[in-house]
Amino acid sequence: MHDNYENINEEGVYKVGSVVPEDGVYACVPCGNKKFLKAGSRFKSCLACFGKERRLFRKGMELWEKIADK
Ligand SMILES: [Zn+2]
Q1: 10 Cα: distance to centroid of ligand 1 (angstroms)
Q2: What is the tens place of the pLDDT at every residue in 16-61?
Q3: Which residues face 14 on adjacent strands?
Q4: Which among 1, 6, 26, 31 is least buried, having the fewest CB atoms inside 10 angstroms?
Q5: CA of 2 to the centre of ligand 1 (A)
């Protein structure tokens, strides 16, 4: 399968659908929305981007960045 998602492996940046590597606070890269995520769960689409911040939403741009350990 080939899709439009680029394989981004920059340290601390994760794509939607990938597994959360460790507990921590992650921020949505396009909009800055913060969320605490548990290790072993998966990154989900950001509801803020999906809804009211629709103008910022772009497929393939759904990335989460780790900003804090707790
Ligand atoms: Zn967002």
Answers
A1: 18
A2: 999 999 999 999 988 899 999 999 999 998 888 776 555 555 555 6
A3: 64
A4: 1
A5: 25
